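Q: What structure does this chain adopt?
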Amino acid sequence: MGLTGIEILKMLPKKNCGECGVPTCLAFAMKVAAGQEDIGACPYVSDEVKEKVGEASAPPIRTIVLGSGDNKFQVGGETCLYRHEKRFEHPTGLAFLITTGMDDSEVSDRLARFNGLRYDRVGVELKADLVAVKDESGDEGAFRSLVEKVRQDCPDAAIILISDNAGVLKAGAEACGEHKPLLYAATPDNVDDMVSLAKQVECPLAVKGGTIGETAELSEKIQGEGLKDLVLDTGARTVKAVFEDQVVCRRAAVKHKYKPLGFPTITFPCEMTDDSLTEAMITSVLIAKYAGICVLSDIQGDVLFPLLLERLNIFTDPQRPMVVQEDIYPINGPDENSPVLITCNFSLTYFIVSGEIEGSKVPSWLLIKDTEGLSVLTAWAAGKFSADLIAQFVKKCGIEEKVKHRSLIIPGYLASIKGELEEELPDWKIQIGPREASHLPSYLKSWQPEG
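A:
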């Protein structure tokens, strides 16, 4: 059980210096207890206190970090069973497989797809996260060369090294350098060698048992030998079994604080079917319940994109609205004579409005005003999309330098602020757009600037 705010306060220096960004030590302690602040933000606490508080307040599923620098991949850190209870912390990692048995052209094609299949949505880059490099020959040199190629061609990819041979894994880990890979995997047959290797190269270790019970036993044994960064593979290779194991692992860790299963999991849809669409279906189930990493046989756009969207939706914080960045968005290649429209930054509104503008084929400038994720009418009612705020944004955003005319199209539902907005923007003519986005194409095709 985590420490209370008062228990944490007793371990703080009680300077009330505010250097942590919180005005008082009591407020800081309460935030640490609630998981909203890290104890390390206090510059005066000892390492002993940091370790004690960190251990007590750690999430029931340990956070594992792979990679290095700006290219880190995190998995785990989960604290709940259901998203509405709080939120899910780290999206399921999507990996694809390359092996030492593949020819160079196939390896290059797969790595090229990893780099090329990237999508921007709501200001977030959607892409695969990891490359799983599998040893099929026991040749340390070939494995090292393949890992080096992955590091060179895909520097932002986290790496999973797969082999039963500790020597081969060591060669791969050395090729990764500071870019920490996941070592896969410790089994009952090689656990001592793998634990020794993981300690030597200081990398997270995957634990694979034949059953969930055997995996828990291995996990407990390895933790007893001082390794704390583990990823679990329960050995299940059917949809029913792997689904059940993911649920059991999450419930055991979150509800019952069972530490042997308190780690993220890795699953292998690539070993459950030879059909890419069936593999994608299995992966979609595991993203929802509750895989930390899913290893696919390959990635193709028609399979990857739906999985990325599913993951985005599931791992979006339900307590925070999805928003797009406040900015000027050019659509269809606008110029100085193109219409200028404005709306709120609620992502659904943005996608609907921008989609209709794009479909109209009319080059346009779309101004997105920050309304803290509220829709048009809600933002207006809350005072976040008022005439004075819209005017401030129009003046500072730079749109006046991009167009010759001074006509601004506002949503039809804001018709009542037209006069007030013209007072705030005396050089602009305010035009009332349609209430429904679906009417935008016809409106824009007949649009003419005023004044």
